Amino acid sequence: MERFKSRAQKLRESQTSAEAKIWQALRNRQLARWKFRRQHPVDRYIVDFVTLDGKLIVEVDGVTHSSPSEVERDEAKTKVLEACGFLVLRVSNTDVYENLEGVLELIQTSLRFE
C-alpha cells in the first residue's frame, strides 16, 4: 500500500495540464457537494479523479490512450474498477480543453443518478 501512496504522490506532482484544469473545477467540493480526490489508489490502480461517496471515477485520457494496446489496457482497468462498484467516465484531454463545461455537466449528471 505504501508503494501506491508514493506513486500517487508523484502523479499529483506531475499532473498534465488537462488534469490541472479539471482539478481546478472539482477541488474543494466545487461541483455540487461532491468531494473528489486526485491520483487516488482504487484496487490495484491509481485513478485520475474519484469521488468515493458518489462511486464515480473520472479518467482523463491523452493521445497515448488511442493505441490498440492502450485501449485494451484501459478496458481491462475499467472492468476492474466497475467490479469495485464504480462508474468510470473517460474524457479526452481535448474535451477538457475545448468543452470543460460539458465535461462537468456529464460528471454532475452521472452523480445525480447514483
TrEMBL record:
<dbReference type="Pfam" id="PF04480">
    <property type="entry name" value="DUF559"/>
</dbReference>
<dbReference type="InterPro" id="IPR007569">
    <property type="entry name" value="DUF559"/>
</dbReference>
<protein>
    <submittedName>
        <fullName>DUF559 domain-containing protein</fullName>
    </submittedName>
</protein>
<dbReference type="InterPro" id="IPR011335">
    <property type="entry name" value="Restrct_endonuc-II-like"/>
</dbReference>
<feature type="domain" description="DUF559">
    <location>
        <begin position="4"/>
        <end position="111"/>
    </location>
</feature>
<dbReference type="InterPro" id="IPR047216">
    <property type="entry name" value="Endonuclease_DUF559_bact"/>
</dbReference>
